[in-house]
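Section 4.2 – Deliverable D4.2 (structural model, holo form)

The reporting period included a commitment to supply a predicted holo structure for the target in complex with aspartic acid. Inputs used:
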Amino acid sequence: MGLIVQKFGGSSVANAERVFNVADIITKTYQEGNNVVVVVSAQGDTTDDLIEKAKEINPKASKREMDMLLTSGEQISASLLAMAIEKLGFPVVSLLGWQAGFQTSSAYGSARINNLVPDRIYKELDKRNIVIVTGFQGINKYRDMTTLGRGGSDTSAVAIAAVMHADRCQIFTDVEGVFTADPRKVPTARKLDVISYDEMLELASLGAQVLNNRSVEMAKKYNVELEVLSSLTRKPGTIVREVNEMEKLNVSGIAKDTNVAQFSIIGVPDRPGLAFRIFSKLGANDINVDIILQSIGRNGTKDISFTVASNNRAATSELLGDYIETLGASSIIYDENVAKVSVVGAGMESHPNIAAQVFEALYNANINIRMISTSEIKISVLIDQELADLAVRVLHDKFFSPDFTA
Ligand code: ADP
Ligand code: ASP
Ligand code: MG
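Output (structure tokens):
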């Protein structure tokens, strides 16, 4: 008998029919003699709808009250799924995050899991119950409910699999696995059989929302092998694990992120310490800066451009708006009409011409590059947002056409 963790995303439990479909997957796994712990997200677009509801009442609602609201979405899906399983005649219990033992930091809206004490889950499994846990949530030291940030249910599932040493951790979603690009945008995208933690982490961090990046980070840290698969077609999915040299692909995927804003500070005095002052001010306010570009100094000044996540756009403007005078810079401009498109691949390191091929493909499609950033396993370019889908397609054609050679 094994311990299997199964996570079902919002689309997998969007309506009564889907809830019963999921109940069938779970009870089949249980009937094979396994202990089953299920993590479930809110149904369909429930979380987005709740956010809209909150905005109607108070667009500046506190993060604590937002978490009080958003945790309810998972409570609905968990209880409905448990009711479906009861109806099929199996023993089941649904638990909220705190009942399942999720202790988190106090950061409402983006809490981290500090500890997971799954005593109650063990107790229920001992009684041979199927255990359904609400994803995306826990409790902090004030005994308030917290959420783990959007897409956080994946992380809840991986945490349970890690702490309880599960034999399998399956992330069920609405596509058949991890593809070489978003299969909804690129019809020729191919499903990957295996992908390494590092590549998956890059893809997830660079916009492929099929897995939440924190869940991949945690899976790597605790060596939890993940399977991403469809709850609808029930075919084998993609395995996320450590891969060996032989299995490494030159390029494993293309990702797009439109949640980006570009800032440029114009006329920054060309002397030491200015970049330090700008970026430490942002860092002190928990604003992550991504791509940074600095022009060559001319006539005693230079320009510094950088990107932040769109949801930090207003805070960045506010922080730097007044500060540029203190710095002696002349102006600050921002543009939200941008997107970051990235090519990810573990084999890239040993194939330096991949960068040139990225630029060639974009040039052939007449796409202008605003900024570039590279690491050992990725190349990201910042471009105009309306060209992002085209960029993903031409890059996908380039690297995944049958005659591609690095
Ligand atoms: P869930 O509700 O199950 O958590 P998400 O909507 O968070 O599902 O993630 C699944 C979606 O991720 C897919 O419907 C797909 O459009 C998108 N996606 C983006 N990039 C990729 C990729 N490289 N491979 C698979 N899916 C991707
Ligand atoms: N329901 C939450 C969200 O929409 C958590 C999740 O789906 O993982 O972000
Ligand atoms: Mg998700």
